[in-house]
């Protein structure tokens, strides 16, 4: 696809990254003044360990960024991954060691809270490092910014002065959104106590906006006048978000559905400060297997390493791409289908016209450079293989695969090699413990005997299609209610599962002799 054809298709593509990118073209029809880069931002609150929901925001924002670059023929862009690490620690997360250490630091900026894992300067530094390792693993192009660094270095000071200068207008935006009790103590500015180092939720009076001076009552009851600049104060959440947009010149930031009100109020405050709020959209939240919203503090979110123990990076990206405005479950049971769906979409991509290519998730996952290789065996079939007795390791599984297709090898097929290893892990931990082969009954016994006789006369190298046709014929001859009932009987009696693979492919992969052994075991159990 030529660059011109790509841009032409992108201008009308209904793929959501292109729809989002076109908002930025309307925002700056002639590009940003002075050739400045379009600024994309994602935010992270390091009060808990990062999970896939955190990672997803950066991934999705990157897809919009790349779509914008496609539309503009390579206009400059930046992606800021921002950590709100100057927030005061409000509660101790449920999923960290040494909770008493954190309990003693409640209220302090996260960069001043000890690291309960004992390996970083602070709890925020620990979680920031995990976030960056997530992003680096996937090769993201981003600039990491820390709220504590931006406040303490003075980078935010000019915009903080503007907040103080527009203090009453900002209060006018926020007070109508608060309960009466909250209005009595609300302040857009949260000073850091000079006596305890905690971030205080107390009323603040602006003494001198130009000098950045504020006054408030400290925790010990004393009246304090001090600077709000240089890290001596931070802003309340919605005001902080708006200030950051203005200070960093942010053009695009997406947010979860739970932050719709924050987006609205922060947008109003950004306008008070003299800047148009960024473009973006509100995505739906991820749910755990119980249908509950995932949470860093609860620790019920799925870790990136959890998915990558059992599924490929591309399968994760594929799952995260689809339907961002629809609430979706996020748990390990989704992996097998995500892996196979990814490969099905990847195999379709080369033959699709430009407009369909741009709507294919793999186009965005691979930035338009989709690998040409295909997968000779589905992940589902590999799971069936590695769930069988005696095939619980990668080397053994490869022996079956190479017999099935001799030209395959770990060296020549690294993606297949990775998937075999992942299948071994998933089968071991989630499939094998659930398998329970039942005894065949009635007509199933006769059908299995006929299947065994059929396999006995087939050559060892019979094709999957040839075997599948024979299995079909047996099902048609026997008085099963439907072919579906025949195949379900095969899955339950031979594999111990209510569903399974295309039987012709499975038997060809596992081998005719081994498959006959499974049948013999099933028939023996019926006799017993």
TrEMBL record:
Motif 'KMSKS' region: where in chain: 293-297
Enzyme Commission code: 6.1.1.6
So what does this thing catalyse?
A: tRNA(Lys) + L-lysine + ATP = L-lysyl-tRNA(Lys) + AMP + diphosphate
Could you read off the lineage of the organism from its UniProt record? Bacteria, Pseudomonadati, Pseudomonadota, Alphaproteobacteria, Sphingomonadales
- Family in the record: Belongs to the class-I aminoacyl-tRNA synthetase family.
One of the entry's Gene Ontology molecular-function terms is: ATP binding
Q: Quick one: which gene encodes this? A: lysS
Classification via InterPro entries? aa-tRNA-synth_I_codon-bd_sub2 (IPR020751), aa-tRNA-synth_I_CS (IPR001412), aa_tRNA-synth_I_cd-bd_sf (IPR008925), Lys-tRNA-ligase (IPR002904), Rossmann-like_a/b/a_fold (IPR014729)
**What keywords tag this UniProt record?**
Aminoacyl-tRNA synthetase, ATP-binding, Cytoplasm, Ligase, Nucleotide-binding, Protein biosynthesis
Q: Where is this motif: 'HIGH' region?
A: 46-54
Q: Name one GO cellular component term.
A: cytoplasm
Give the residues the record marks as binding ATP: 296
Instruction: Name the principal localization, coarsely classed.
Output: cytoplasm
Q: What is this protein called?
A: Lysine--tRNA ligase
Q: Return the Pfam families for the record.
A: tRNA-synt_1f
